[in-house]
């Protein structure tokens, strides 16, 4: 939380109360000022510089209720915590009617003070985020990074508007390439943590032992090679948002430790003897059926329910075909800007072919296909010939090879994919590796793929990093 969001005014005629509160608040990162009279306190509040006030109800020159009423009449949005040594139900009810958030009876402990302040600050931020969402127009313009007008996508936008301002854990479910990280970033952008870090971790990238160190950090000497303490991603997230991609790849040991972190916001670095705290908002994603994995004993049931608080199902591209033309032209314009080429669009025939494809790699595959088509294009309009030469269509079949059933048609299409597109895919991998000097991680990043998916394609085509001049390094 930024300093301005933590500015607090203390109004109390007891110097010891003011000094004690200011010291406790300062030790916990809050900025505070103090006034010893009601009039000076009211003047400070009406300046609009404060978001929260700790207000004594019995002051030498003004009654606390009068201050509350004047602040309310001024229209200033202020969170109020009342402090008094004269606690009574009537005082509490009257103060609450004037918008008081909480009520502290003197004497109160440091923990009571800090808990009340933390809840008040969080409540204020939630209200601000909620009002911001309500002020947004009922369109998808505030989701500029995601292209889609399909009803299922619009419903996801509505779900994000509802859940983003809270700290609820969200589970994004969808096939590989559907853009789960994009949706996670939209959740983050619409949350009250948008000014804090966003940390993304691909759980399939690291080995189990390395992943634990990456997530939770380690102490010096915790294992061979641990020459100094290392901060984990949980700490680095710093009150921000942690996105755990492909969470189904976590082993059972890491699952148990993640469950503890989700439930208590506590974690233990590898080799450490003490727990650490992390106020992190969790977003997880998976392209696998976690319910099936739970039944098979490969995923903890308690962790599944802890992650599945607010599930969002992202549809595959084949189930939102009406969005394919928008996506095609979006990526066409994007690639033209990047390459400096001018390609105006697609012919009706080529557009029909692209819209009717099943797109097993979803939006990621579509983006890469458009990039390749623009690169090889030699005319302002992409025709069917461009697709047949450089995508997945093969030579036009002769008459006696025309399929006579749906199963035969599917088999013919799969054969074309294996034979024609397979060679293009292999050449694509070789080129990426060559340009990245044989470094798999760099090659995957250059072409916009996850390293795990790039490695899977390499294995499919029997390639290794020798396709480039040097070996891969992480």
From TrEMBL:
Keywords: ATP-binding, Nucleotide-binding, Phosphoprotein, Transcription, Transcription regulation
Gene Ontology biological-process entries: phosphorelay signal transduction system; regulation of DNA-templated transcription
UniProt modified residues of type 4-aspartylphosphate: 56
Molecular function GO labels: ATP binding; sequence-specific DNA binding
Keyword Cytoplasm assigned: no
Pfam families per the UniProt record, alphabetical: AAA_lid_14, HTH_8, Response_reg, Sigma54_activat
Chain ranges of the Response regulatory domain: 7-121
Sequence ranges assigned to domain Sigma-54 factor interaction in this UniProt record: 146-375
PANTHER family: ALGINATE BIOSYNTHESIS TRANSCRIPTIONAL REGULATORY PROTEIN ALGB, TRANSCRIPTIONAL REGULATORY PROTEIN
Protein name per UniProt: Fis family transcriptional regulator
């Amino acid at each position: 939380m930024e300093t301005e969001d933590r500015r607090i005014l203390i109004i109390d005629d007891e110097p010891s109360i003011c000094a004690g509160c200011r010291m406790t608040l300062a030790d916990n990162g809050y900025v505070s000022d103090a006034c010893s009279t009601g009039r000076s306190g009211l003047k400070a509040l009406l300046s609009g510089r404060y978001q929260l006030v700790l207000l004594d109800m019995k002051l030498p020159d003004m009654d606390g209720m009068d201050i509350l009423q004047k602040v309310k009449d001024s229209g200033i949005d202020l969170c109020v915590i009342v402090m008094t040594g004269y606690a009574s139900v009537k005082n509490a009810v009257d103060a609450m009617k004037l918008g008081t958030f909480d009520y502290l009876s003197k004497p109160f402990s440091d923990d009571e003070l800090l808990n009340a302040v933390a809840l008040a600050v969080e409540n204020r931020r939630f209200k601000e985020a909620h009002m911001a969402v309500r002020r947004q127009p009922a369109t998808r313009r505030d989701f500029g990074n995601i292209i889609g007008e399909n009803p299922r996508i619009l419903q996801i936008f509505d779900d994000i508007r509802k859940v983003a301002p809270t700290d609820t854990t969200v589970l994004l479910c969808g096939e590989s390439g559907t853009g789960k990280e994009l949706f996670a970033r939209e959740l983050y952008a619409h949350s009250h943590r948008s000014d804090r870090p966003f940390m993304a971790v691909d759980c399939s990238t690291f080995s189990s032992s390395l992943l634990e160190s990456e997530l939770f950090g380690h102490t010096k000497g915790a294992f061979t090679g641990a020459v100094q303490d290392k901060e984990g991603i949980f700490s680095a997230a710093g009150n921000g948002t942690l996105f755990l991609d492909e969470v189904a790849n976590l082993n059972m040991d890491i699952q148990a430790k993640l469950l503890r972190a989700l439930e208590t916001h506590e974690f233990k670095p590898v080799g450490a003897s003490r727990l650490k705290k992390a106020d992190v908002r969790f977003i997880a994603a998976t392209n696998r059926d976690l319910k099936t994995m739970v039944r098979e004993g490969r995923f903890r049931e308690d962790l599944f329910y802890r992650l599945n608080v607010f599930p969002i199902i992202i549809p595959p591209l084949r189930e939102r075909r009406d969005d394919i033309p928008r996506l095609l032209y979006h990526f066409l314009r994007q690639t033209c800007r990047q390459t400096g080429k001018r390609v105006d669009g697609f012919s009706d025939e080529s557009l029909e072919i692209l819209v009717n494809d099943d797109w097993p790699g979803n939006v990621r595959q579509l983006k890469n296909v458009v990039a390749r088509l623009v690169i090889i294009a030699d005319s302002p309009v992409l025709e069917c010939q461009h697709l047949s030469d450089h995508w997945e269509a093969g030579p036009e079949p002769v008459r006696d090879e025309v399929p006579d059933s749906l199963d035969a048609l599917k088999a013919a299409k799969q054969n074309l994919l294996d034979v024609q597109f397979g060679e293009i895919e292999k050449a694509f991998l070789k080129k990426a590796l060559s340009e990245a000097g044989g470094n798999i991680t760099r090659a995957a990043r250059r072409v916009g793929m996850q390293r795990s998916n790039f490695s899977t394609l390499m294995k499919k085509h029997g390639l290794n990093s020798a396709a480039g001049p040097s070996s891969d390094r992480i």
